[in-house]
Amino acid sequence: MARMTDQPQRRLVLASASPARLGLLRQAGFAPEVIVSGVDEDALSAPTPAELALVLARAKAAAVAERPEAAGALVIGCDSVLELDGEALGKPADAEEATARWKSMRGRSGILQTGHSVIDTATDRTASATASTVVRFGEPSDAEVAAYVASGEPLHVAGAFTLDGRSAPFVDSIEGDHGNVIGLSLPLLRRLLAELDVSVTELWV
């Protein structure tokens, strides 16, 4: 058995509609509930991509933590942006933008910034940080880019790419936590939970 305690299981709530983040948590032994924050991402800003990712993550976690159904739970908020030339790139608005994005990223490196915010609604304590992973893009042909954009996938992911989908062959390498690029850094989550005096093993199911 994962848990060797008589203490009641803490509830874990993911303040995100991302199936990739949910999948990462489930694979790591958690069984989070999902409550989508509804935060208007376009209404928020910050001086740098790393700070923007953190501002968005905090806003999502806070929005869900205020809801009655999150009472007593540990709420996780995350948001990712790709930093390229100092600019924060989220989900492309349309296929044309996704195509232009990929043509500009080919053969280059960017930094995937994912903000993480954990709120313990039982104590009102919060722990937050941003994880950064360097992503080195390959050089897909124009035809490959067109086919990828036509799949629709890049319109739903930050930076117009993901490591757990059709764009994986177009990423040559990464430097850092691969889970962070998918949407959530499990090592960082462990450290944030520890700041709140919660061990990840207490949350295993």
* Structural class by sheet pairing and helices: alpha/beta
Task: Tell me the total number of β-strands.
Answer: 7
Q: Low-confidence spans: pLDDT under 50, at least 5 residues?
A: none
Proportion of helical residues: 25-40%
Ends apart, CA distance between termini? 8 Å
Beta-strand proportion: 15-25%
* Topology as a string of helices (H) and strands (E): EHEHEEHEEHEHH
- Total of DSSP H or I helical runs spanning 4+ residues: 6
Provide mean pLDDT, rounded. Answer: 95
CA gyration radius, whole angstroms: 17 Å
Biggest beta sheet attributes: 7 strands, mixed
Overall outline:
elongated
Written description of the protein model:
- It is a single chain.
- It is built from six helices and seven strands, in the order βαβαββαββαβαα.
- By secondary structure, the protein is α/β, with parallel strands linked by helices.
- Strands 1, 2, 3, 4, 5, 6 and 7 form a seven-stranded mixed beta sheet that branches.
- α3 (95-105) packs antiparallel against α4 (142-150).
- The protein is elongated.
- It starts with 11 loop residues before the first strand and ends in a 10-residue tail after the last helix.
- The mean pLDDT is 95.
